[in-house]
Amino acid sequence: xxxxxxxxxxxxxxxxxxxxxxxxxxxxxxxxxxxxxxxxxxxxxxxxxxxxxxxxxxxxxxxxxxxxxxxxxxxxxxxxxxxxxxxxxxxxxxxxxxxxxxxxxxxxxxxxxxxxxxxxxxxxxxxxxxxxxxxxxxxxxxxxxxxxxxxxxxxxxxxxxxxxxxxxxxxxxxxxxxxxxxxxxxxxxxxxxxxxxxxxxxxxxxxxxxxxxxxxxxxxxxxxxxxxxxxxxxxxxxxxxxxxxxxxxxxxxxxxxxxxxxxxxxxxxxxxxxxxxxxxxxxxxxxxxxxxxxxxxxxxxxxxxxxx
Length: 308
What we know:
The chain is α+β, with helices and mostly antiparallel strands. The chain is built from 8 helices and 18 strands. The chain is globular.
């Protein structure tokens, strides 16, 4: 959050989500800052970073909606990816330098589909050096740019589906549905290795994050056109914060309990379940995230102070 010389916070209090179809060539933060300026928003964040070369769904959160960022990080995702077989790069994508070439096996569609199925399910994946993960206080890509390679611990990921869309020469077009923390660039390299060759990601487009719909995305030129009428016009295109939690169970509480809940006190719940829930006042106002205990108490975990 920036301040002007007088110490006052700049920008306007804006609450909501915008699903940006991020263009290639921008980092996730660069894309966020462009939209933040269009909205003249005071507070902003994004969730689920995309590589600069990648395109697709990047949820941008403004104001109180930044509180859902942590929950969106847990969401499953889907991608459309083009793998270029026969060439490996140091970054795993088109931004890197070619480091190795290899013959491409002559597999038919059935052969590729059988191979792809071997990667469906739970597995361990070693994050790439060109990633934003930190080790020893440094981003891995910072070390990689200096020519350093450090040992990375494998992480548990889950691949729910790999659909072969098209085979065209040395290119494979795939749709991948996966868990959080999956590096599609690494998946492409591992698939190629299993086929006896090398590969890199030629194109990566994220289609969905959690329950968000692709048709609700807005590209950057579109956002700029809407904002030509003023920041208010673009603010009308924002989604409410609770849309990010649409797959969660709902708990509704009366007004007298709502005040206690938003004040940080646990209140009696009405649902017979455990875990995190979306909490609303009986009039429909979204109050925040609560956690139901086995004793039936509803404890506040994240309070949202949205404009009524």
